[in-house]
Design brief:
The longest helix has 28 residues, at about 165-190. Helix 7 runs antiparallel to helix 8 (about 195-215), helix 7 packs antiparallel against helix 11 and helix 8 runs parallel beside helix 11. The chain has helices spanning about 5-15, 30, 55-65, 105-115, 135-140, 150-155, 165-190, 195-215, 225-230, 240-245, 255-280, and strands spanning about 25, 40-45, 85-90, 95-100, 120, 130, 145. Helices cover about 50% and strands about 10% of the residues. It is of the alpha+beta class and about 290 residues long. A 5-stranded mixed sheet has the order 3-4-2-1-7. A two-stranded antiparallel ribbon has the order 5-6. The radius of gyration is 21 Å and the shape is elongated. A hairpin with a 2-residue loop joins strand 3 and strand 4.
Amino acid sequence: MEQIEPLLSRVVSRLAPIGGVKAIVLGGSWASGTQRDDSDVDFGLYYEARQPIDVAALRVVAEDLNDTPNPVVAEHGGWGRWVDGGAWLTIGGQRVDFIYRNADFVSQIIADCLLGKSEYHYYQQTPYGFRGHIYLAEVRFARVLHDPDGVFARLSQSFDAYPPALRASVVQGLLGESEMSLLVARKLAHRGDLLLVAGCLTRIVMNLIQVTYALNETLFISEKKFYADESSFSVKPDDLVPKLNRLVQPIGSTVDALTTTVDHAAALFDELVELARSVGLPYRPRRLG
């Protein structure tokens, strides 16, 4: 952390006066302590819906801070519903991201998660899409750099841990989605359809990772953090990572090979169903035709 402290101070001093910026936090791997040498430094810029960030003023600051001219600074909504917008910069040779966050929207998503509801947006940037409950992990892991009015503090104080209702709905809902994907994958494997079997297996991997986080009551922020988190999980199948890897490479190309890979996915699914039952979250299968 010591190496980026001057950068944090420099950037915050320039961002804090910008209209609409109510709070600034350090997020991503630098906040969670899992950064690599090439990791970007992520600044979360929180604003309230009634007063969005003054993007024109932010663009002036970004132009001044960036190592090269004409950095792209997105308008609100420019990066989609979940990430909203921001900028990718290089400051003093260090990759830096500005990421907008609507505090009112984040507050509503947290409230939904407390009731067991979490939205999913498959086509939002990350390899396996964006799940609404990622906001909870962002709020929990972030390091506050500027929050004079307590806007971010109110978000972080609105929940204590992995919400029990969300845990139950993730386990039940995503095991159900996985079961459906297994049914479809098995039919496609018998046809030798490599592309569509691969798609089903990708969905299964994504879902089983989320279920594993829920079983361990660990907030999920990114697949990139999965390897570090998985090593500390107490509720998980033996050899979880090798078993997941086996579902995506190699999956085979013949009917027999594809069927065998789907069988591996079914076996891992069964392990997680049993683990869910062991912690008091029995899976209730859907009625599949």
